[in-house]
From TrEMBL:
Residues 662-703 are annotated as: Disordered. This is RCC1-like domain-containing protein. One of its GO terms (cellular component) is cytoskeleton. Residues 662-671 have a biased composition (Polar residues). It comes from Aphidius gifuensis. The lineage of its organism: Eukaryota, Metazoa, Ecdysozoa, Arthropoda, Hexapoda.
Amino acid sequence: MTDFELFAWGANSHGQLGLGYESEQSLLPEKIDIKETNIKIDEIIKITGGGGHTLILDKNGNVYSCGWNKKMQTGIPGGETISKLQKIENLNNIIDIACGWDSSMALTETGDIYVWGSNTYGQLGLESPEEFINKPIKIQLPNFRVKKISMGLRHSAIVTHDGQVFVTGSNNKHQLGIVNDDNVKIKQIKKFTKVLEIENIIDVSCGQYFNIALSNNNCVYSWGDNKQGQLGFDNNKIKYHDKPVKIIFDIDIKNIISISSGWTHSSVLTTDGKIYSWGRNIYGQLGFNARNNYWQAKCVENLRIIKQLKVGSEHNITIDDNNIISSWGWNEHGNCGNGNTQDIFKPTQIIFPSGFEGFLIGLKNKKIKNYIINDKTIDYYLIVIIIMLRSKSQNSICEQEAKFVQERIAGVEKYFAELCTVFAAYTRKAARLRDKNDEVSKILKIYAESETVNRSLNCGLGNFATTLSVIGDYRDAEVQRLDTKVIAPLSQYSIICKHAREDVKNTFSIREKELTKRKNLEKIRSRNPRNRQMISQAEADLMKATVEVSRVVKGLEDQIDSFEKRKLYDIKTILLDFVMIELSFHTKAVELMTKAYQDIADIDEAKDLEDFREVLNVPDTVQRLETVRRTSFRQACSLSNLTKNFSSPITLRKSANKNTESLDSMKAISNSSESVQVEEYDDDSSEETDDDTDKTSVRSKSK
């Protein structure tokens, strides 16, 4: 079953926070102990407060109260201050409750109303001369059923099922909207009287001295005091309206679902979760981050989609679609729950103990499961009470949160490290392919240079080698980019995760200290409830610890959020970069491989084969010319030719005579080496034949 806890903060001078003791104020949310009551927190449907008292309504129609009781406004006889919640007897089947300064009202499911507390100004609608009523009393209303109730400082208003508005109480600022026939100002009315100028009203909200009402056609009416522009009209021109007047907004405000009024400012909430405010802004209650008053409605910025809005005297509290509670405005008594008393001029999140989630209480007359409420009272003693959703004990929540965050960090560290390892191996493989590509290119280039016969093959291999070399360059760029864009970012996460774990550990250590201070305060309050010095010191210690926790937790939340944001961005960027790197390389590789394919396809096999055959089959004429060149060289270098070339003329004549004699004696030997050579190469050695002829002639003369 879902657990709820009740928390309160703000002024507590009359025990209105229900903490069991009185104090000047509580600046931070404090848990309300309800063990001595019959209240079931998960059954509470509304909480509201007055100048110094509080009312709580549950789904069973029971009403509980505490706080200031001088005028019996708590509905509990005796007049003593009540610091713990008590059930109001003889008050059953209640569906709505409202508080004035020192008076109270309740609405039954049958449309009847009960009132109690101060009636000095006729705010209870009783014509009785008694100044206060010490217990709830039913008001006799003539033939109509009530569906909405609201109380201001000293006046009250109700809305009937047929859309009529009735008012009672003080009229010193024209807040009743009623003028007599003689146009004489009415100071007060002690019974509920109809406001004639408006109809079809579905809701009404009372401020300090004014009212606003919402019709079923999305129109807003206002009347009463306009000193601060709270009626939605220029306060320099119009000081008040003594009867309801429709507000003409200068911006288009559609689908209003609720209206709220503080002491001197007004707000509306629309179905799209936007808040529009106008009126006094001296304390920042309009949320515009300025001190200027605005009589024209403006949208409150820096808010998410708002689910519900609650307006105090001069401050506001909201809850958004993420169940985050924010506050702004007057903060003198810690009304905004942020741990100090400085006014807040723009919506600021309230930090609660770990493990709690808040929900504003719904205003409809039916069971609502999850809720949280801030009061809508109109005085400076305004209290704030909150119901916080909690699933498990505080320590368990801390442990679960720590475990969850640590598991997230550990998961990121593990998988990013694995990705880094895999991508590094992938990159090394790409580098090896690059190196092998270069080797293939080098061998092809050498082979191409050696191929002198097949010219087409030479050209094709050369082009192919060049293309492979370019592909190698692109592969190298791929490797470098993978290292820079993929591996390097992934490798950084070991350090990032280490720092994140240390931050989480430090934060939860500080949170444990804050829990210890809180337990110590509760112990002191239970054992020494009257020792204000000890309690004040414990409260101060807790406040310091809580502020420190809030600061550290906020910082950690920002860091964890930043870590998660960075992780998502980095993993997306890394993978996109990987895809783009590979896509870029392979796109270029396909383009270059297409060219390489064409280079190889252009090799002319037939032409290269023809060239080869021409070199292999040399023509006969070429062979004979080569043989002649070799023979001429041998002839020219023979001994006889060399002797003839280098001998003197006398020697030559003696040699000739000797040769003649030798020839005569050797006639039988006719085949000399020279003559054989001449005969063998007769056709190609004309020079040598002529020499032999001369020799023969010489040799004949000698005879």
